[in-house]
């Protein structure tokens, strides 16, 4: 699509560089730092900055900030000791290293610093830029509700026309958050609003396009899943930049929605060796692979492996705390999981899909405890608040919950669930435990079961105790009911 707004500052900057006029280059960047940054691609900006004699670069200037970030070295000591240019460069460098939480802290301090505010003119789009960058950092730390608030703030003060891409970004990035964890309808609405804005000649437009395509694929309807997968795979990964973990999540989720667990795992495994710029166990970049593998293990019924993988996941973001509870429910720890899932409501409620997952997990846990009335009330409330279920939410509904909801909750569509998600995933039983379970489903006594299996009654008692523990049951009837719900009988 042809640009409707030319970023003329970039044109003037390139002309000054071609003419060898370093003083004019410095003057242009100083007058309009953001328009200069977004008007010239980073590779060309790096060349321009290298051509400026060091003694021509003012201390604490935007020119110095750009040069530090693109050419280094970037200091790593406390931000309280940094001049404004070092602070700005430190922010981007920390995020590039995968330390998004440190970067967000730098940005918060910078926004409160009179010295930093003097570096840029806030009336020239800086307020929008800072809020977008803070929101992006929060997307990477997993603080998603805070990220949405930052993007809302970014849209409050429209930037100058040449920086309209910043405003488009302030719609597209929250659309991606909503597409994966929030309200899919809000995601589609924000993408539509972003598309209505005039395009500029900035290089960043193509980056924003890539993020928009990723968000659009994530909210595809059930009939367009194959096309959505192809759309994601066509997006050039370099254009995604720091948001590459969201590609991993979107593709993994799309394959799960297609019912292709093997392909979901394979998509993660293919991408993992090429990933960089993350610290294991920190934020979304450092957790996305372990989270995907843990989810896959849980869906296969390999709860012990899922538990092992949880050790590589950041414990702070709500998206990963809910995953931990999914594993707890899967391991039969329903009573404790119920308590913790109830406690997560305040963190999940701002994000529709995350809240949807919390409620369906809580319902599965309640059903495993035989609390059908509580599960019914929860699911009815979910439908009442939702204003209609969306295709993208199907993946969060375990089969046992879907069947129960269709039978007890008005407005719940038949089959609205994911066959891969079994609520409390069925525990892995040994052949002998499965044989005991099948005989328990008959009217045989324990002594008769022992005789049928050619073992002692004490052995059957021990095996039955292990079986009950795996099923989270305390009685024969409860064990059989749970086994039926999980598809073991």
Q: Can you describe what's shown?
A:
With 489 residues, the protein is mainly alpha-helical. 66% of the residues lie in helices and 0% in strands. The model is unreliable at 74-79 and 115-121 (pLDDT under 50). The protein folds into three domains: 8-241, Serine Threonine Protein Phosphatase 5, Tetratricopeptide repeat, CATH 1.25.40; 346-425; 431-485, Arc Repressor Mutant, subunit A (Orthogonal Bundle), CATH 1.10.10. It is built from 29 helices and no strands. The protein has helices spanning 8-18, 22-31, 33-39, 42-50, 62-71, 84-96, 100-112, 114-119, 126-141, 144-154, 164-180, 184-196, 204-218, 225-234, 237-240, 244-257, 261-271, 288-300, 303-310, 318-330, 334-343, 345-348, 352-368, 372-386, 399-408, 431-440, 446-453, 457-471, 476-485.
Provide the fold topology.
Layout: H1 8-18, H2 22-31, H3 33-39, H4 42-50, H5 62-71, H6 84-96, H7 100-112, H8 114-119, H9 126-141, H10 144-154, H11 164-180, H12 184-196, H13 204-218, H14 225-234, H15 237-240, H16 244-257, H17 261-271, H18 288-300, H19 303-310, H20 318-330, H21 334-343, H22 345-348, H23 352-368, H24 372-386, H25 399-408, H26 431-440, H27 446-453, H28 457-471, H29 476-485
Helix/sheet category: mainly alpha
What is the makeup of the main sheet?
none
Mean pLDDT: 88
Unreliable stretches (pLDDT < 50, length at least 5) are 74-79, 115-121
The amount of helix comes to 55-70%
- Domain count: the total is 3
**What is the CATH C level class of the largest domain, in words?**
Mainly Alpha
Number of strands: 0
How far do the termini sit from each other? 57 Å
Fill in the CATH topology of the largest domain: Serine Threonine Protein Phosphatase 5, Tetratricopeptide repeat
Give the helices and strands as they follow along the chain: HHHHHHHHHHHHHHHHHHHHHHHHHHHHH
Strand percent estimate: under 5%
* Helical run tally: 29
CATH architecture of the largest domain: Alpha Horseshoe
Q: How much is the radius of gyration in Å?
A: 27 Å
- Shape descriptor: elongated
């Amino acid at each position: 699509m042809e640009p409707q707004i030319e970023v003329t500052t970039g044109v003037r900057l390139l002309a000054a560089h071609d003419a060898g006029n370093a003083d004019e280059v410095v003057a242009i960047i100083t007058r309009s730092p953001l328009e200069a940054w977004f008007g010239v691609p980073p590779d060309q900006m790096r060349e321009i900055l290298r051509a400026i004699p060091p003694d021509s670069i003012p201390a604490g200037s935007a020119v110095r900030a750009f040069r530090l970030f693109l050419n280094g070295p970037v200091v790593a000591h406390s931000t309280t000791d940094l001049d404004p240019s070092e602070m700005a460069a430190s922010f981007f460098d920390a995020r590039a290293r995968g330390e998004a939480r440190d970067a967000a802290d730098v940005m918060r301090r910078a926004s409160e610093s009179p010295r930093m505010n003097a570096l840029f003119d806030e009336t020239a789009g800086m307020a929008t830029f800072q809020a977008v960058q803070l929101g992006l950092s929060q997307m990477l730390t997993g603080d998603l509700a805070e990220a949405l608030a930052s993007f809302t703030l970014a849209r409050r003060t429209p930037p100058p026309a040449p920086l309209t891409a910043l405003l488009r970004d302030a719609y597209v990035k929250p659309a991606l958050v909503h597409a994966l964890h929030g309200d899919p309808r809000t995601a589609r609405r924000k993408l539509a609003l972003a598309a209505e804005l005039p395009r500029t000649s900035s290089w960043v437009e193509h980056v924003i396009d890539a993020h928009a395509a990723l968000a659009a694929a994530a909210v595809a309807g059930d009939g367009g899943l194959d096309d959505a997968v192809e759309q994601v795979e066509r997006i050039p990964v370099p254009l995604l930049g720091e948001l590459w973990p969201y590609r991993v999540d979107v593709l993994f989720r799309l394959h799960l929605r297609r019912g292709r667990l093997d392909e979901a795992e394979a998509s993660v495994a293919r991408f993992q060796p090429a990933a960089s710029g993350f610290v294991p166990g920190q934020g979304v970049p450092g957790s996305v692979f372990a989270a995907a593998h843990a989810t896959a293990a849980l869906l296969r019924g390999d709860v012990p492996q899922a538990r092992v993988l949880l050790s590589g996941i950041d414990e702070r973001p709500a998206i990963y705390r809910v995953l931990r509870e999914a594993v707890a429910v899967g391991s039969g720890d329903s009573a404790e999981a119920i308590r913790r899932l109830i406690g997560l409501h305040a963190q999940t409620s701002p994000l529709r899909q995350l809240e949807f997952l919390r409620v369906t997990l809580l319902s599965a846990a309640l059903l495993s405890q035989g609390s059908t009335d509580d599960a019914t009330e929860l699911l009815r409330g979910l439908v009442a608040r939702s204003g209609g279920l969306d295709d993208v939410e199907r993946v969060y509904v375990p089969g046992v919950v879907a069947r129960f909801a269709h039978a007890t909750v008005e407005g719940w569509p038949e089959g609205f669930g994911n066959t891969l998600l079994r609520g409390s995933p069925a525990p892995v039983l040994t052949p002998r435990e499965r044989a005991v379970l099948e005989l328990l489903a008959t009217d045989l006594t324990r002594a008769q079961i022992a005789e049928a299996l050619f073992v002692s009654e004490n052995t059957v008692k021990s095996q039955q105790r292990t079986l009950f523990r795996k099923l989270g049951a305390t009685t024969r009837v409860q064990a059989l009911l749970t086994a039926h719900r999980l598809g073991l009988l």
